[in-house]
Design a protein that fits this description.
The chain has about 180 residues and is an alpha+beta fold. The protein has helices at about 1-20, 145-170, and strands at about 35-40, 40-45, 50-55, 60-65, 75-80, 85-90, 100-105, 110-120. Strand 7 (about 100-105) and strand 8 (about 110-120) form a beta hairpin. Keywords: Signal.
């Protein structure tokens, strides 16, 4: 049994190590494209989007184009972060779900950078939650005071019954 466990453990470790060695390495593409960070990368219509890039130089500016999603053009200007240009636009309320390419053309050097924005119709993880958290029945400050009272009553009855049984057992009355 131990020999089988050792064999299986050794095999699992060998497969895991081979997976790390064979994992592809990704390098930064210097041939144009990429390099535009979109935050949040997933949004609902009406969300304010911030884009930034370090590809336009230390004092670089860029002309942004969010026309694919229907937001039009915007400007990226140097920011307080060293060497980054930042700009903003709002996803129009009429935007349809899908993945859209956001483009920025650097003012110097004719470099173009791109990033993707995913538009959904439902709230995305990381945005402000609305309403109460659905964690089960009741709770100290849950949304239903009747269920909370029923839970407290059930706990009180269980505690009283347990105390009564322990008291009878200690007195020798039997159970």
């Amino acid at each position: 049994m131990r020999r089988t466990a050792r064999l299986l453990t050794g095999t699992a470790l060998a497969v895991a190590a081979a997976g790390f060695v064979a994992a592809p390495a990704y390098a930064d593409d210097d041939g144009g494209g990429g390099g535009l960070e979109v935050f949040p990368s997933q949004a609902v219509p009406g969300t304010q989007i911030t884009v930034n890039t370090a590809e336009c130089g230390t004092e670089g500016t860029a002309a942004g184009d969010a026309g694919a999603v229907g937001a039009g053009v915007f400007t990226l200007a140097p920011s307080a972060h060293d060497g980054e240009a930042v700009g903003q636009f709002r996803v129009p309320p009429s935007a349809q779900p899908g993945t859209y390419e956001i483009v920025a053309q650097c003012a110097e050097g004719d470099r173009q950078v791109t990033g993707d924005l995913v538009v959904t119709l439902t709230a995305v993880h990381g945005q402000e939650p609305h309403g109460s958290v659905k964690t089960g029945v009741g709770g100290a400050l849950g949304p239903d005071p009747v269920q909370t009272a029923a839970g407290v009553t059930a706990l009180a009855v269980a505690a009283a019954g347990g105390t009564w049984l322990l008291h009878r057992r200690a007195r020798g009355d039997g159970i």
